[in-house]
Amino acid sequence: MKLIGSLTSPYVRKVRIVFLEKKVDIDLQLENVWAADTQMPSFNPLGKVPCLILEDGDAIYDSRVIAEYADALSPVSKLIPSDNRERATVKTWETLADGIMDAGILARLERTLRPAEQQSQDWVDRQMGKINNALRVLSEQLGGNAWCHGNQMTLADVAVGCAVGYLLLRFPQVQWQTQYPNLDRLYQKLLQRPSFMETEPPKA
Questions:
Q1: How crowded is residue 96: how many other Cβ atoms within 10 Å of its Cβ?
Q2: Which of 48, 71, 94 is the last residue of a domain?
Q3: What are the backbone dihedrals phi and psi of residue 55, each rounded to the nearest 5 degrees, phi first?
Q4: Domain residues for 100?
Q5: pLDDT per residue over 25-42, tens digit each?
Q6: Which of 137, 144, 151, 166 could bond 10 through an S-S bridge, CB–CB 3.0 to 4.6 Å?
Q7: pTM above 0.85?
Q8: Contact at 8 Å (CB) between 117 and 156?
Q9: How far is CA 31 from CA 9, 44, 148, in A?
């Protein structure tokens, strides 16, 4: 299998971590979706990463779909519970974490792609408000627990780790580590795992 993505995308990092935790080997093919000569639309018509190319050539895209597919490939390190209610809870954590990444990327694109005179501060503020609200809820739901859900790491923890890691990379001004020390404790624990170490995004 081949995973098409970038080293700085938090969505790509999420599925790479899942594959590493599952001990399923994949080849990573780097692609810049913003380059004029990008081939991404030939793999995913939406032009987004990550995109997983299966052995038979079929493509699977969207990080949530890929993560769920990957979790079913091996019984090692089950990340999504089989119980319907627990599964929904873990997937809701993932949705909230993905929402932080969605809002962060929208705010970043407003600043990096749009000419200064066309940028909307209201739009950026709206996205940052989503991030702040989501961080507050994540912290409240985590409380003093060791993991987001249950007594072991799940996809919820992977998604949250990727979301806050993305904030550290692109929005260091968001002081979530001091405001929500329980989220930081979780993140520091995740950083000790080889899957998180190996997928640490480049700072440049």
A1: 20
A2: 71
A3: -60, -30
A4: 84-194
A5: 999 999 999 999 999 999
A6: 166
A7: yes
A8: no
A9: 11, 12, 32
